[in-house]
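User: I'll paste a sequence; please echo it back and then give the predicted structure.

Assistant: Echoing your sequence first, then the prediction.
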Amino acid sequence: MSNLKKVAVVGATGLVGGKMIEVLQELNFPVGELIPCASEKSVGKKVKFAGKDWTVVSLADGVAAKPDFALFSAGAGVSLEWAPRFAEVGCRVIDNSSCWRMDPTKKLVVPSINGNVIGPDDMIIANPNCSTIQMVLALAPLHARYKIKRIVVSTYQSVTGSGMKGIHQMLRERGEEAMDLPNAYPHQIDRNILPHIDSFLENGYTKEEMKMVNETCKIFSDNSIKVTATTVRVPVTGGHSESVNVEFEKDFDLEEVKAIYASGPAPDSLAPGCCLCDDPAHDIYPMPINAFGRNEVFVGRLRRDFSQPNSLNMWIVADNLRIGAATNAVNIALSLL
């Protein structure tokens, strides 16, 4: 029993927080006591875990419980104020917001890529952006072999990335039953595509696009990698899709690339966490409808870019609430055990 841990989930009633609770159980994290935390309006609600009902408590009560781990998914403002308070009582915090990702004193981690950077004194660890996680997981084995020079990525991101507001805006626009929540987007999303995720910056890019630029270099510990991104919201649920063009310093063999992904998602494979889904002759390629509820990153449409040397086109799909958020966070916690 001494190996069981007290685990707080901050933002437990939200989309990602709920998924974190699911994944903790699925991945057999040794939870002895779950401490679901949320805003005052959610205190007293119940969440299910391991066949039991657990009562949602305030963040102050969560700190007072002195958990071993706290998984945060309640926004950057909450993380800025409360993550240090949890850390002060000896709790290892894994934060899913943008708050700490580019802080030079905090580690930004995808365990199979750079889990070794975490030290015993790292009490707050940042979980990367959802669109970044699936891209770097797919590119890491290729970077190790051929050295990435430049990435051009366009994303096709699910409304689930905007939480309940995004889902229910789309449902309302489709004439389906929906919760009475404010709209997530400045325009209709159903039957539409918005080249606009997060706020626009002075350079013309959005915050989401610059997250992909900066986080990729930090995770790979390589500021020489050039990244340019266009992030787009599409009216689907189930996962994010990405069209990626990557230029390498060394040439590659396309069959070798396919063999890397075909080795499967096992931790000891050539491409941990990734699955090959690439048989265009039979209309087989990654799609968010098939990635939904899965913890793998699916890679397909692999083909050489004939317009420039040493360049590859690929299509990457993953469930953004899982590997793009909850699953990676729980994997970080597992790596700390």
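The chain has a mean pLDDT of 97. The chain has ten helices and 14 strands.
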